[in-house]
Amino acid sequence: MTAADARVHVTTVVSTDPATAFAVFTERTELWWRPEARYRFAAGGPDGALRLEPRLGGAVWDIADDGARETLGEILVWDPPHALRFSFRARHPVGRTEVEVTFEPHRRGTRVSITQHGWGQREVAVKNLLSVLWGDLLNALRRELAAAPHEA
Amino acid sequence: MSDLSPTFAALGDPTRRGIVEVLRSGQRRAGELSDALGTSKPTMSRHLKVLRKSGLVEEVRDADPDDARVRIYRLRREPFDDLQRWLDQVQAYWTDQLDAFREHIERGDR
Q1: Do residues A85 and A91 lie in contact, with contact meaning Cβ atoms separated by under 8 Å?
Q2: Cβ separation of B80 and A137 shorter than 8 Å?
Q3: Interface predicted TM-score of the whole assembly (ipTM), two decimals
Q4: Is B106–A152 a contact, with Cβ atoms under 8 angstroms apart?
Q5: Contact of B71 with B63, CB cutoff 8 Å
Q6: Is residue A6 a contact partner of residue A116, using CB atoms and an 8 Å limit?
Q7: Size of interface A-B (CB pairs under 8 A)
Q8: Do A62 and A88 contact (CB within 8 A), yes or no?
Q9: A114, A13, A25: which is closest to B93 by C-alpha?
Q10: d(Cα A50, Cα A35) in Å, to the nearest integer?
Q11: How many degrees, rounded to 5, is the angle at CA A131 between CA A130 and CA A134?
Q12: CA–CA distance from A49 to each of A15, A37, A64, A67, B88 (Å)?
């Protein structure tokens, strides 16, 4: 396994249809995004609120309390109501990660999944450390965490 | 989280990446490493010094009680534990955001 396969993946099921889930996720982040979430530094997350410009090529912004706006990335794939993918500038380790969000029909509504990957794409040392790590220690841990239920 | 920069920097060299790859399967003598990587002993010694300074590799103490010249090297857990801890944090972050999204939907606010 290589660093190209290195990804963080979380999933849950929400009790609404995919179109509503997609719309609320992408256009109403002010209603649900947690700016104060722990570990935002680790994930390269915004210090403020996340906002998306809802179109292909649209901006991904970090909006501070005072309204100051910083661009973190752009929308790379815009496929309502199925999926979106955006670039997401990570600060540590430095790199241009990507985040993919998918919305799949589920008997109880919609399965929403978030995947972040791409660390070290432009930094060979990071890529290789991740490759070594993924080769032995992490496979079992990732499977275990992915199986942990977050369903509503 | 402790600084992973020296770790990443040490891995910027393909021979050192190769050393780490070999040591994943167990500790090795310096001579075995230079044979495996096709380097001279002084070159291997230099690479091992960089890896030790970065904290990725350590020397096994008293490797051979009958021969003090024998040097055996192994990977240290700590950098990998640090990296694993960071990845767990990233996982926890997105779990938080996804939980927030789900809770909002479940509350019925649109």
Answers
A1: no
A2: yes
A3: 0.79
A4: yes
A5: yes
A6: no
A7: 118
A8: no
A9: A114
A10: 8
A11: 80
A12: 24, 10, 7, 10, 22
d(CA A95, CA B56): 22
Q: DSSP letters along B38-81, please?
A: T--HHHHHHHHHHHHHHTSEEEETTS-TT-TT--EEEE-SHHHH
Please write the tens of the pLDDT for every residue from A85-112: 999 876 655 567 889 999 999 999 999 9
pTM: 0.72
Q: Give tens-digit pLDDT for B36-45.
A: 999 999 999 9
Give how far B57 is from chain A: nearest CA, Å.
13
Establish if A122 touches chain B: CB-CB under 8 angstroms.
no
Cα B49–Cα B55–Cα B58 angle in degrees, nearest 5: 65
Tokens 């109501």 -> residue: A81
CA distance B78 to B80: 5
Expressed in angstroms, the distance from the first to the final Cα of chain B is 38
